[in-house]
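This follows on from our talk about sequence and fold. Can you supply me with one protein entry, sequence and fold together? Could you add the entry underneath, on a fresh line?
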Amino acid sequence: MAYRGRFAPSPTGPLHAGSLVAALASWLDAKAQGGTWLVRIEDVDTPRCIPGADQTILQQLAACGLISDEPVIWQSQRSALYQSALDHLIEGGQVYPCACSRKDIEAALSAQGVQTERHQAAVYPGTCRPGRGGLQGRPARAWRFAVPSPSEVIWQDQQLGEQRQHVADEVGDFVLKRADGLWAYQLAVVVDDAAQGITHVVRGQDLADNTPRQILLQQALALPTPAYRHTPLVLGHNGEKLSKQNQATPLDTTQPLQSLNQAARLLNLPKCTGTVSAALTRWVQAWRRALQAHEGSVQG
């Protein structure tokens, strides 16, 4: 099967150093394997999107020589596809309506003596699962995926090695359509990866724990599961992941090769001088050699 990869930024602001690492890695992985590289703008969370940020991102990528091989798509234009997938899951009894707010979930967990750590997502306690009674008299507006049992998902990450997660214990039933009517990332990404024929997903390590949920959804929708590679994160001065939420500095594309070299260093690639095009060519060759060396070690 021909390689098809993608970079899928959210237009909540311009790209920063951390986003460029993921973009460069996904582009190199595709080009080193003779594949197609796509760009998808993940703008389903419209309240967080900044007008014009999508075009800024595309301009930043172009300045770094990273251009989509096919027309860019925007998730905000694909609601019908997501609704079709949700309808399929409803018909199969694999989802259920939920009336819980975040405060309801926190209160239910607190009553059970469960403490949630900082930055840790609360595990849904199953309040609205069929047969549990739910919140009587409250309208159910969100839709949750009923995580099957057993829920352990094991996958082989091309960067991190074998990974596993007990989704029911570590995440719980998760939202596919929010109470405000917006589509959740988990459903949109699974539907779009399948619709675009994505065979390989290369993205940052902060998204690795999303993979088990996406694999469960792929199985429920009878969709193929891509190969996954999760790349190292760029950390800020406070030791936390560099992100738009903690005011990461926008990527400077006035000197694109300098920015690319910073990203390449984190990917264990050599420093390059000259033009952006020449650097990308050299890095593709280095990436291909690394892939071949890894394949050889596995076979050996």
